[in-house]
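dude i think i finally got it to work??
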Amino acid sequence: MRIRQLVFVAKERDELSRQICTLFDLNETYNDAGLISFGLENVLIPLDDTFIEIVTPVTENTTAERFLTKRKGDGGYMVIVDVADFEKEKERVSASGIDIVWEGNRKEEGIQARTIHLHPKQVGGAIVSLDIMHPKDAWLWAGTDWKKDINKVLVDRLSGVILQSEDPAKLCSKWEKALGVQKSSNELSIHLNESKISFVKEVDGRGEGVHAFIIKALEKEKILENAADMKALRDGEIYLGGVKILLE
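look at this
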């Protein structure tokens, strides 16, 4: 089980995508036309075999539009976790009392993608999606040709997310239940394969939600130089799309 995709919701998809690609020397790879059924447009950006997605509401009364209002602008929206045994995780979630609000089963070009979205109010912080692909090295949400767009000059992969709450310990316990994984004994962090989810006190007045995305960097100094040129630094830290970007 590992974080495979982190999702921004933004009023201006193309502008945020341009900023992210400029900052990290990355490439767009795919727009999923099927998201229009949810009133959304998107773009996928690969970081090795993990992905940043940006969604923008294009019709009224979408969950994403309500999110933008609630959190006073752009921000982190979803955490998509790649699991090893989809049926086992689905049964575990159902037995836990957490509602599954949407289930998908999509097949294209020899790839099968399965997903469940957990009830956001019952988990908190962000929408949690548990997903699996057959074959395992595919990622259909980014299409079938994303590997050609990988660029590992400045960054390697997504490695974590930090969620904020008035009661981070309570939020952490909800995510433990959602993922079926216990937190570390000495910190408010849930460790997954090659990634982790951490929880901190909310101090910015935006309420419960995503505080930061964590990216494994290969050239930190160049990224910080790019961020300074883009005026994306605040007190020496990178902020884009309503999210702090931490480099490790």
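The mean pLDDT is 97.
im so relieved honestly
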